[in-house]
Amino acid sequence: MGPLLYVTLCSFRNRIRVRVRRLKEPRYLVGAIVGAAYLWLVLLRPRSSSQPGGASGGSAGVMAAIGRGRALIESFGAVALFGMAALAWLWPGQGRPALTFTRAEVQFLFPAPFTRRQLIRYKIVRSQVGVLMGGALMTLLFRPATASEGWMFFGGVAILMTIINLHVTGVSLRRESLGRHGSAGLARQWLPVAIVAGACLVLVGTVALDWRPLASSATGPALLEEIQRLLSTGPVAIVLWPFRLVARLPLSETPADFLQALPGALLMLGLNYLWVVQSDASFEEASAQAAEKAVHGRNRAPRPARRANGVLSTPFTLALDGPLETAILWKNLILVGRYVSLKTLMRFLPILVIFGLAAGRSDSTGLAGVFGGACLIAFIMAVIVGPQLARNDLRQDLANMAVLKAWPIRGATLVRGEVMAPAAILIAIAWCSALGGLFFATPLNINPSFLVAAILLSPGVILMQLLFQNAIAVLWPSWVVVSTRRARGIDVMGQRMIMMFSLLLVLVLAVLPAALAGGLLMGGLYWLTGALWIVGPAVVTAIVLFVEVLVTSEMVGRVFDRTDVNAVDAAET
Amino acid sequence: MISISHLTKTYGTLKAVDDFSLTIGAGEIVGLIGPNGAGKTSTLRCIVGIQAPSAGHISIDGHDIVKDPVDAKRRLAFMADDPQLFDYLTVTEHLRLTARIYQVLDYEARAKALIEELQLTGKENALPAELSRGMKQKVEIACGLLHDPPALLFDEPLTGLDPLGIRRMKATIVARGKAGGAVVVSSHLLHLVEEICTRVVIIDRGRKVADGTVAELSEQAQSGGSSLEHIFLKVTAPES
């Protein structure tokens, strides 16, 4: 056995051992039970005949659906594969190395007497573990009716994923190689890009030329039929041919179909493999740098912009005296200012647009309705989803727990300071969104009082959720992801599910007293005046919530004071 | 200044520190040495309140680290062997944050002096990712010295420093001792301990096995040699 294969097999075996061994700890055991139960429910549970695709109803749902629309799915699959390949060429990942090595791999393997080709082969073999696991999971999810159908699907998906993997690696290596050949290399880089761009033009041009018949298709099936015709004839068929060879394999209906499709897919696999292993790209430097950055947890962070004098800007100047919470707020706001780019925020734009359009259309209120709908969605996201995403608090600081514990600060003060930055950002987003909603309230037919109430209540709800998230970070630090190296496994999946449901439950319980106080006042006012008062009870609810927030911060702070830094699992930091 | 009384720290069934007592007065520089896994870092972490003692008491300038942690920590500085800096704060921002936390009102003058003393000039606006390990160590030490604490704990302070940095660091530690600070230096570099420490404590398997000046330890251990290395090897030799 070669040393590289030995490393691969030992790493795989030891990873399984570690995961099995950690089940001795109750938190992982409980997580594993919940995770396994979830997987069983989703993937393995026999379905009743009343459900679509039930076991007793013959073939399973997804595979049966594939059977009915095999040709069309094959075409769409080929288009998707073409899209992936085109994206890899036209929009390569910025600053990402062609091959990703861990720090240990860089230290042990790069100075060792291995050829570059051996290292590339090693990475390909390592990536196969993920490919096989992914293929197995997809096969379970798609529920093939027979064993042979299962094996065909698994084999097909595994080969398809391997080809994608190889092709993306090949593109990265090719780009790196050409980039190192100076201007001549950069000039040569244009040829494959031009070919891909040409292929894209063929696809887009065909759709544009055929737009009228496509748009005039009266029914869904007619539209699909027209799309299928377009994708399987003329120049588009030629462009998609190699991708169709690959997409066809997992969709095979019979073993004969599979064997017929196999040579084509294997040909694509072989060509991609040869292309990758023959690369002369010197990937070592970029991979080593990426490994170092990954260790320090900033592999995806952009470099912050500096002023002309080299100074980095800060949200405000920190005074030398004053509440200590402000110091922590300052520190965490700097993190947001330096590492959250506009690009990150733009990821949420499609969600807002889609939901905004849906809200606008459903009410037939035009553009104002669309804006109003988008504002409301942004408000809901900021209040409900935001506290889970904005992690510039203790969750981010767990890796520096020893430093925080050495500071002469009460735990409660620290906890309050830590949640202030994400709270300030989320409250600002929520309030701006609610004000936008207030502006467009008339077309959306929403009572402005409800929006005012939402503005009043949002800080308390956001703060309470942030406190719970931070409480989990303090109570069970190893359940919180504190670095870019995410822990994996069924047990970890189960832990996250438990955490999510517990958070929801605790939030409901926490908001209940405040809601009761507000509800009682609302009921009393209604009984006295006969009118439905919204804003007054919302003020009372907000005050009770704020008191609860203060009390909770004291409680979480006490837990923080007692927390041992060793509770932060070293293996997961 | 630093008083440790019957400190015990256990991790599950492992007793990392076992009934450890020590008093360090003002102006003393105590070298804490011991084999790997002897309990040095656990002891230091308990002293600064990063970890809670399983048993025993620790007080800093009369303030109990468990009962009165904020006042005790205000009088402390801990320079860990692996400098932990915030990825997104520059050198100056680290110092400013520390100044606010420890309420150092004459921050500007002190920070300037420390930046010069620790050869950080020109690196004021650098992020940790742009610094070498030695530079990060210096930033951590600058933060620790900023509030001029009466009790200082250094864990392997010379790791990653260049020869000039080592000389300056030794001078810094000695200066703090001479200025009346109670200093603890944990290190495997026995020549460093021998050179700068006024007293040496040897810890082995969680227990204090020797305490005194190098001359006293040599006498106690009857080591047959006056170097700290001889004494250390004799005192920590596995029992046959």
Short recap of the structure:
The complex is a heterodimer of chains A (573) and B (240). Chain A has 573 residues and is mostly helical.
Structure description:
The complex is a heterodimer of chains A (573) and B (240). In chain A, 33% of the residues are buried. Chain A folds into 2 domains: 69-293, no CATH class; 324-572, no CATH class. Chain A is built from 24 helices and no strands. Chain A has helices spanning 3-21, 26-44, 61-68, 70-90, 103-109, 116-142, 147-180, 182-209, 211-215, 220-231, 234-248, 255-277, 284-295, 324-339, 342-346, 349-362, 366-389, 394-397, 401-406, 411-439, 441-444, 448-475, 490-529, 535-562. With 573 residues, chain A is mainly α. The model of chain A is unreliable at 53-59 and 569-573 (pLDDT under 50). Chain B has helices spanning 40-47, 69-74, 91-101, 107-117, 133-146, 163-178, 190-196, 214-221, 228-235; strands at 2-11, 14-24, 29-33, 55-60, 63-64, 76-79, 151-155, 182-186, 199-204, 207-212. Chain B is built from 9 helices and 10 strands. Chain B has 2 domains: 1-75 and 151-240, Rossmann fold; 84-148, no CATH class. Chain B has 240 residues and is α/β, with parallel strands linked by helices. The N and C termini of chain B lie far apart (38 Å). At the A-B interface, helix 14 and helix 19 of A face helix 2 and helix 3 of B.
